[in-house]
């Protein structure tokens, strides 16, 4: 009888120690961080904020509104080249642009909150009058509330926006090589005439 009890206690102790070894470390976080490049991602986010998230732009849409009027005598005709003097996005300022289209219109810089829940975009350049939903016949003034019908960036189409500035000008659709990455950007919309130089 004693022998059976000793055997039973020995088996129980063996089981307890085995289970203890199996569960050793439970509750400890032994996983590696999911994002090992977190500092770099934060730096990229800060850079994105500085340029108004324009690296998410749909660079190569090429869709021109049907009612947009071609410029009769633009300073930079189609297929000519010019130097971009604007920093709507990284790699743009100083790039050599080939003109893909020149149009007479009203250009607006706008601030809006994307409909997809992204962060608010401040002073986006440029939305043209023909890219506004149910636009009135005459240009909007600074501070006016408008609805966007363009898809330059994710979450833009359908967003409510405030007009920050207004320019009656020639706008250009341009192709250029990104000066930072070497990526070919085609049909970028839009660059205004005063953002180009010979």
TrEMBL record:
<keyword id="KW-0732">Signal</keyword>
<feature type="domain" description="DUF1541">
    <location>
        <begin position="143"/>
        <end position="193"/>
    </location>
</feature>
<dbReference type="Pfam" id="PF07563">
    <property type="entry name" value="DUF1541"/>
</dbReference>
<protein>
    <submittedName>
        <fullName>YdhK family protein</fullName>
    </submittedName>
</protein>
<feature type="domain" description="DUF1541">
    <location>
        <begin position="80"/>
        <end position="129"/>
    </location>
</feature>
<dbReference type="InterPro" id="IPR011438">
    <property type="entry name" value="DUF1541"/>
</dbReference>
<feature type="signal peptide">
    <location>
        <begin position="1"/>
        <end position="21"/>
    </location>
</feature>
């Amino acid at each position: 009888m004693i022998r059976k009890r000793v055997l039973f206690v020995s088996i129980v102790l063996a089981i307890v120690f085995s289970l203890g070894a199996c569960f050793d470390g439970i509750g400890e976080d032994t996983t590696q961080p999911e994002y090992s490049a977190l500092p770099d991602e934060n730096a990229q986010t800060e850079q994105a904020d500085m340029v108004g998230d324009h690296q998410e732009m749909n660079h190569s849409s090429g869709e021109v509104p049907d009612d947009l009027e071609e410029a009769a005598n633009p300073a930079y005709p189609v297929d000519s080249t010019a130097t971009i003097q604007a920093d709507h996005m990284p790699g743009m300022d100083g790039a050599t642009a080939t003109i893909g289209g020149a149009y007479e219109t009203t250009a607006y810089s706008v601030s809006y909150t994307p409909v997809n829940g992204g962060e608010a975009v401040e002073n986006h350049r440029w939305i043209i009058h023909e890219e506004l939903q149910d636009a009135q016949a005459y240009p909007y003034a600074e501070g006016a509330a408008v609805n966007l019908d363009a898809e330059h960036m994710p979450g833009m189409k359908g967003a409510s926006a405030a007009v920050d500035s207004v320019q009656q000008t020639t706008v250009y659709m341009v192709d250029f090589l990104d000066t930072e990455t070497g990526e070919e950007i085609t049909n970028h919309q839009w660059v205004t005439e005063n953002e180009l130089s010979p």
